[in-house]
């Protein structure tokens, strides 16, 4: 019954050092160890490693909840970072463009809005777009205390309660830690619906938990297929025990070696508007997992073919400091360019006839890869047959796997984020949270250095 | 009558080398020379330098054309790169969020769509959103031969002509070179409306020409105010003849020095959803202007506060390889968080009461800057009073100026883009354009190297 994955991943692995393949071979033993470690920890459901098991989870409760969500006119998900990016990625890839603009019969489910950034202009605009009495609010925070999310939630909760009184909680779904935190307490106290986020899964690895799947299913994305894709990818990766046969091993090794050679950026450049947010999702996964101990290549988000008109000049002739990944898509909704040019003055474009716009996009991907390779830049070229649930699920699992392997190869914990705590303490102090007053003077002290130069224009 | 600009630009200029201020002082003479060069070439309207004069242009014809555009139900702009990014930036910053979703009375003008990427899914979706008989199509390409733009144009032109016959050209506005190119010929042959792009202005510097301004004015953006902001910025910059008084000089110098010290990334991280596309616009300006001769720092697009939950870990604890610019906004549409927490289980968030969501966003900017500075990372902190026409105009001119100065300081021509030609030749060859057959085998040869490793999953 299963549709079978069929992706190809290849690349040109230039470097200043011609022995790069040998170097990768020398990494082989370490890669194998990292892989064994990853799978063992996954099996134990160790802290941070729980995503390894997500392709095999039972979806019953999530689908039940999604059925309820699907009955509203609009869904507003309140969350930030890992509690929003995965959703944005799924919606961007798997729903029609301009989804929220479409009349109801053309949509597969409710309209879907995110309250993510603490930006009052966006928040006010979202509230203006909905009728709260027909809206489901999905509040997502694993800790239950993410500042932006709680701020949005408190504000929305007051509005809904003012309007709907003691029916307000019937419009809320809380997705949070199964036991701990303020949102869990809130769910217990009000009796509103809730889903748990597995304790062993961190925010940036959580798209295949309730965090990503509940609202995705509600808007008509086939979440069984997402898991099927992830499962197949997992099984393929488990079968391949040679670096040059296992794409996750090969890519992890390539990334480690290129980083050592001074290429400190990992460009993610899918070709197709539907994968724009995939590059965003990747950027969080990569940046937050690997950016520690002075290590970490910087994820650079790009979009083909648009960034050929923005970043390609730099990629071609700027410093050789990037490993560039391009994702091409084989089948795109075909539609044909005119078969014949009728205007004399446009005759020079005859060569475009009998092509499709999709042909053009894939030709651009291939041509740009060739030009970069000719210029001696390392390129990874990944090709999927189509942008669909099964391939998005496969890509998600694949990049989670690669990221974790790179972290382990660099002796980094790819599942923590200690570096964001300082900023949080500072935010709490300026917001006046009890217990954080001591940091206020520190914020001012360091911010003062910002006026090392200060120019009023 | 003029509203006066009031922006502050400051920063913490750490580096491994404590003498960075001295180094910048040593650059002073070169900066002054570059500035004189820039203004002289601008005065002569030399090739590439024409943007220097745009703040002083006469808008009569653009406004006349915009009045005509404003009478349609929807505007579809066909363009890519510099012929789309500036428009996206203006619309994102200066129109309400979810603009196209709003009912007509809540909008200031027609709905606005871009056909930018050669992605058939998006193109089909845009066509489904409009009634061609009530739509104005704006085709933008300076050369008149940009492949993606022409492909979209040929396709749309056929559809509109099939539907509206010899009234079709009444729905088209062409924005292109005043004399040359296929689109100019098309405008002459059909008699459709047209605007010129000044010959001395390149694509990525063209947002304040007809390219950016015509549709902006049509959707209700005050383009006189945009120019006013640019003009005031120009005059302020012209008055300041000391590096540490002139923000463009200071920033250009900082960028050059940090690049020399190995910081090969320029992070642009505005705080506010309305400036997301500003970072995109900056990325093209910066990347395509400076990425040549093996030089060029890579623009990294970020968005505060969202990227605190995605990239901050890396910025804090990853390699010290970035110069990070944050843009804060003083006045945001206020709306208040609840004044009192009524639920016991949420009492721990009392500290959020009596703040606004806008306060939170600015506190996040300030706290994150402090945390980065404490971690020893160089930060530029720019603050504008509000996101409005005058400040967007000022920022545009400011960053164009800084970019050009950096190019001149590095002995780079910031107005060409030779590195994209190779890719274009390859695209033409695969598309079968006469005269480019010879490159086809070259594409295949270099693309073949892509299978240096190739793994079928």
From TrEMBL, chains A, B:
It is found in: Cytoplasm. Pathway: Carbohydrate degradation; glycolysis; D-glyceraldehyde 3-phosphate and glycerone phosphate from D-glucose: step 2/4; Carbohydrate biosynthesis; gluconeogenesis. The keyword Amino-acid biosynthesis does not apply. The active site is at residues 288, 309, 424. One of its GO terms (molecular function) is isomerase activity. The keyword Cytoplasm applies. It is an enzyme of class 5 (isomerase). It comes from the Bacteria. Transmembrane segments: none annotated. Keywords: Cytoplasm, Gluconeogenesis, Glycolysis, Isomerase. It catalyses: alpha-D-glucose 6-phosphate = beta-D-fructose 6-phosphate. Its EC number is 5.3.1.9. Pfam families: PGI. CDD domains: SIS_PGI_1, SIS_PGI_2. Catalyzes the reversible isomerization of glucose-6-phosphate to fructose-6-phosphate. Belongs to the GPI family. PANTHER family: GLUCOSE-6-PHOSPHATE ISOMERASE. This is Glucose-6-phosphate isomerase.
């Amino acid at each position: 019954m299963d549709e079978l994955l069929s992706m190809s991943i290849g690349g040109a692995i230039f470097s200043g050092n011609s022995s790069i393949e040998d170097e990768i071979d020398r990494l082989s033993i370490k890669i194998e160890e990292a892989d064994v470690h990853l799978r063992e920890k996954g099996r134990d459901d160790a802290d941070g490693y729980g995503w390894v098991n997500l392709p095999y989870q039972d979806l019953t409760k999530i689908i039940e909840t999604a059925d309820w969500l699907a009955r509203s006119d609009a869904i507003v998900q309140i969350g930030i970072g890992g509690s929003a990016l995965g959703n944005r990625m799924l919606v961007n890839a798997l729903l029609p463009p301009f989804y929220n603009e479409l009349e109801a019969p053309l949509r597969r489910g409710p309209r879907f809005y995110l309250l993510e950034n603490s930006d009052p202009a966006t928040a006010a605009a979202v509230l203006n777009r909905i009728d709260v009495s027909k809206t489901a609010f999905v509040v997502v925070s694993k800790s239950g205390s993410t500042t932006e999310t709680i701020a949005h939630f408190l504000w929305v909760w007051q509005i809904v309660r003012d309007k709907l009184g003691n029916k307000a909680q019937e419009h809320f779904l809380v997705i949070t830690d199964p036991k701990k935190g303020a949102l869990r307490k809130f769910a217990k106290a009000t009796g509103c619906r809730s889903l748990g986020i597995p304790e062993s899964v961190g925010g940036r690895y959580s798209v295949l938990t309730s965090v990503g799947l509940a609202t995705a299913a509600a808007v008509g994305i086939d979440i069984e297929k997402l898991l099927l894709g992830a499962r197949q990818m997992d099984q393929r990766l488990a079968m391949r025990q040679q670096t040059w046969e296992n794409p996750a091993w090969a890519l992890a090794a390539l990334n480690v070696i290129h980083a050592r050679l001074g290429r400190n950026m990992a460009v993610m450049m899918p070709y197709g508007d539907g994968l724009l947010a995939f590059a965003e999702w990747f950027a969080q996964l990569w940046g937050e997992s690997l950016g520690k101990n002075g290590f970490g290549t910087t994820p650079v988000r790009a979009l083909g073919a648009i960034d050929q008109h923005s970043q390609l000049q730099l990629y071609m002739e700027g410093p050789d400091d990037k490993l560039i990944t391009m994702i091409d898509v084989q089948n795109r909704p075909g539609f044909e360019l005119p078969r014949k040019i009728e205007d004399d003055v446009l005759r020079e474009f005859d060569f475009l006839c009998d092509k499709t716009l999709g042909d053009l996009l894939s030709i651009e991907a291939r041509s740009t890869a060739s030009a970069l390779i000719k210029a001696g830049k390392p390129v990874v070229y990944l090709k999927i047959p189509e942008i669909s649930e099964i391939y998005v699920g496969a890509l998600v699992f694949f990049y989670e796997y690669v990221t974790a392997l790179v972290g382990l190869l660099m002796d980094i914990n790819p599942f923590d984020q200690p570096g964001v705590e300082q900023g949080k303490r500072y935010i709490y102090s300026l917001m006046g949270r009890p217990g954080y007053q001591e940091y206020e003077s520190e914020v001012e002290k360091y911010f003062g250095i910002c006026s090392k130069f200060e120019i009023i224009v």
